[in-house]
Amino acid sequence: MKFYYVYIVKCSDNSYYIGMTNSIDRRLFEHNSDKNPDSYTFSRRPVVLVWFESFSDPTQAIMIEKKIKGWSRRKKEALISEDWDKLVQYSKNYTEFGKNGDGSSASSD
């Protein structure tokens, strides 16, 4: 059975890159190599794998990859740290729970 992986790497500038592959080792090597100077991770090397999940259905893997790409940084970090309570909290509707996910809407003034 063939497997597909959705993964998150943390870049040297502390940004995250989300991708999908059928070979984690090969993709990490490619992200950290000089192979593609136009790629997002090229100028942000080295990258470190911080999370991955395997799938047997490539369609499901693509769907999850796209979903995670749309998440906020804090929601991605909750997934990486497996903090399921915060992941649920950060999934709540902003109009009901505010930007902070706790009912407050503190500003950055």
Automatic annotation (TrEMBL):
InterPro entries with a match to the protein in the record: GIY-YIG_endonuc (IPR000305), GIY-YIG_endonuc_sf (IPR035901), UPF0213_domain (IPR050190)
GO MF entries: endonuclease activity
Alphabetized Pfam families for the sequence: GIY-YIG
PROSITE patterns: GIY_YIG (PS50164)
Stored SUPFAM superfamilies: GIY-YIG endonuclease
Domain GIY-YIG: from-to ranges: 2-78
Keywords: Endonuclease, Hydrolase, Nuclease
Family as reported in the entry's similarity comment: Belongs to the UPF0213 family.
Protein name in the entry: Putative endonuclease
High-level lineage: Bacteria, Pseudomonadati, Bacteroidota, Flavobacteriia, Flavobacteriales
